[in-house]
Write a structure and sequence with these properties.
5 strands
């Protein structure tokens, strides 16, 4: 996955060309990009693995029901050979980076 394909995916999903696309180095087996439009910023995750985001979708939907601030799922599906998940953007560190440092209470 590259920035050109991310731009095409975003145009397909939002009918708007991104102003900026930046690759993140938070995932090891996936492609993660921060995409900025005129009025919003989103996170685009892509993977060549089938059902790559099944657990992520499950947990984001569950956590949202108990009023934990988590990204909302804006779009999900398949684009070319990739599965994708587009989320609202949150400032801060990815949970995968800080997970091991959390206490049981957190």
């Amino acid at each position: 996955m590259n920035e050109e394909k991310i731009a095409k995916l975003c145009i397909d999903c939002f009918e708007e060309k991104p102003k900026n696309i930046a690759r993140c180095a938070v995932e090891q087996g996936n492609y993660v990009y921060i995409v900025e439009f005129t009025k919003q910023k989103v996170v685009v995750r892509c993977s060549e693995k089938v059902s790559a985001y099944k657990d992520t979708i499950y947990w984001l939907e569950r956590l949202a029901t108990i009023d934990i601030p988590v990204p909302r799922i804006l779009r999900k599906g398949t684009f070319e050979e990739f599965e994708y998940l587009i989320l609202t953007y949150f400032e801060g560190q990815d949970i995968g980076i800080v997970y091991n440092d959390l206490t049981a209470t957190q």
